[in-house]
Amino acid sequence: MALTNRPRTIRGYSTAAGTGTLAALLLVAVCGSPAYVGWVQDHTDPNGAGGWFLRLLAWPAWRLHSDDPSQSVLAADLRAILLVILAGVLLYLLPAARVARVPGSASQFFSGWAAYALAGGLTALVAALFGPGGSLLAAFQAASTGVSYGFFAGWIIGLASLGGRA
Questions:
Q1: Does 45 score more than 50 pLDDT?
Q2: Is 143 domain-assigned?
Q3: What percent of the chain has pLDDT over 70?
Q4: Distance in angstroms (rounded) separating the CA atoms of residues 42 and 52
Q5: What is the phi/psi pair of residue 159, to 5°?
Q6: Per the domain annotation, does 87 fall within a domain?
Q7: Does residue 97 belong to any structural domain of this protein?
Q8: Domain count along the chain
Q9: Which pLDDT does position 95 carry in this prediction?
Q10: In angstroms, rounded to a whole number, what is the distance separating the alpha carbons of residues 156 and 146?
Q11: Of 13, 100, 102, 107, which sits with the fewest C-beta atoms within 10 Å of its C-beta?
C-alpha cells in the first residue's frame, strides 16, 4: 500500500477544488449561455448596479455556432473553456485553506474567490492574445475586464468552495 499526502474522498464529501470547479462550470454554462446573454441584453439597464452586475455575469459568453466563417466555434468559445479549466487548476493549486494558521472557512472562501479572480484575468489575457487579431494592448485591456468579472463573480465560487473539504 502506497502512502500519499492526498486526502481520501469520503462518500458524500468532495474537495473544495471540486465543488468550486463545478460551480464555475455551472456559472459559465448558465450565465454564458446564448439564452441568458440575449435576455440580459434585452431586459436589464446597463446604467443601474443590478443590470451592470447581471451583464457582467454574461462575460464568458459561449456560442453553439460562429457567425464569422473565418472563426471556428472553438476560437469563439475559448474564453468560456479556459475559464473553467483555469479555475479548476487554480482552485487545486491555491492551498490557502490547508496551510492557513487558523484553518477554517474564511481562508477556504477567500482562496476560492481569489482563484476565480485570477482565472478570469488569465483567461482574458490568453484568449485576447491568441484570439483573432490579438495585440498586447488588447490583451491587457481584456485582462482588466476578466479580473473585474472574477472579482465580482468570484464570491459565488468562494461560497461553493465551502461545500468541500480543503
A1: yes
A2: yes
A3: 77
A4: 13
A5: -65, -40
A6: yes
A7: yes
A8: 1
A9: 67
A10: 15
A11: 102
* CA dist., res. 122 & res. 81, Å (int): 12
| C-alpha–C-alpha distance, residues 26 and 52, integer Å | 20
Length of the chain equals: 166
| Predicted pLDDT of residue 8 | 47
Per residue in 47-92, pLDDT (tens digit) is 999 999 999 999 999 887 766 655 656 656 888 999 999 999 999 8
Find the domain containing 135 and state its range: 16-61+72-161
Site of grid cell 498586447: 136
Number of continuous H segments (helices) and E segments (strands) in the chain = 8, 0
Alpha carbon distance 137, 53 (integer Å): 25
DSSP-assigned states of every residue in the chain: ----SSPPP-TT--BHHHHHHHHHHHHHHHHTSHHHHHHHHHH--TTSHHHHHHHHHTTT---SS-SSTTS-HHHHTHHHHHHHHHHHHHHHH--HHHH-SS-SHHHHHHHHHHHHHHHHHHHHHHHHHHSTT--HHHHHHHHHHHHHHHHHHHHHHHHHHTTSB-
Query: What's the whole-model pTM score?
Result: 0.82
The Cα 47–Cα 30 span in angstroms is 23
Check residue 68 and report its DSSP letter.
S
Does residue 78 fall inside a structural domain?
A: yes
